[in-house]
Write a structure and sequence with these properties.
This protein is an all-alpha fold. The protein has five helices and no strands. It has one domain.
């Protein structure tokens, strides 16, 4: 039951954080491109890379913290379904360049963010 509660709490924090990050990004950069979705996807990838490497190679994070952060927080924070919807809207509008740019940016930046998260964790705890 403790794990379920930690996932629920993490999910609530992730959802509110997603809303805050997206709202801030839209105010800063506008809504002509889904920058908010891209930002939370990249940050989510960075965080999951760091947390998963750290938790798989050390005992620094208890299981409850790991699942609260990854399943709860990141499950609510990242927005792959929103990314899919926004990209499809571009395609349906015939806006192929923004659709391809959005897909490529999310793929490349998110993979790079996961790698960076792993590298940061390795730096923090040593290579494994």
């Amino acid at each position: 039951m403790r794990e379920i509660a930690s996932i629920a709490l993490g999910g609530a924090l992730g959802a509110v954080s997603r809303y805050a990050a997206s709202t801030f990004t839209h105010r800063l950069l506008g809504t002509a491109f889904p920058y908010g979705t891209l930002l939370v996807n990249v940050l989510g990838c960075l965080i999951i890379g760091f947390i998963m490497h750290l938790s798989m190679s050390t005992d620094l994070l208890p299981r409850t913290v790991r699942i609260a952060a990854t399943i709860g927080f990141l499950g609510a924070f990242t927005t792959f379904s929103t990314f899919g919807w926004e990209t499809l809207q571009y395609i349906e509008d015939g806006a192929w360049i923004p659709a391809l740019l959005n897909a490529a940016a999310n793929l490349i930046l998110c993979l790079a963010a996961v790698w960076t998260g792993v590298m940061l964790a390795r730096t923090f705890v040593g290579a494994s």
